[in-house]
Amino acid sequence: MQRETQAKFIVFEGIDGSGSSTQAELLYQHFQRQKIPAVLSPEPSNGIIGNLVRETLRQRLRFTTDPVQLNRQLAYLFAGDRHDHLYNEIDGVFKQLAAGI
Fold it and tell me: I need a surface site. Which of 5, 28, 32, 70 has the fewest CB within 10 A?
């Protein structure tokens, strides 16, 4: 009898340059070798809001020159990107997990 397994959502958190992306990639490669279905999904995401985050961090897009306001706006963008990344009805992480990917 084959056991049903529940999909897992694994997150590596860390500041830029801390190695979280490297660790996520290594785990993803391990899953691939073991024939375990997996999705590697970075944040900021490749979605519209994620692109706004990246452009703001690269200083190619500025909403304000006030650093306090900029940090607050970035926090809202990051939160919006995380929500879109997880719940997007087309390609959100939870949609993929529900599909068994």
Answer: 5
- pLDDT per position as a tens digit, 39-93: 888 889 989 999 999 999 999 998 889 999 999 999 999 999 999 998 988 888 8
Distance CA 46, CA 11 (A): 17
Task: Say how far residue 98 (Cα) sits from the centre of its chain.
Answer: 17
List CB contacts of 44: < 8 A, sequence separation 6 or more. Answer: 50, 51, 53, 54, 78, 81
Scan for tokens 């979605």, then name that residue.
47
Place of tokens 């961090």: 57
- What 3 state SS string does 43-80 have? CCCCCHHHHHHHHHHCCCCCCCCCHHHHHHHHHHHHHH
Question: What CA–CA distances, in Å, run from 7 to 4, 10, 48?
Answer: 10, 10, 26
Q: pTM value? A: 0.71
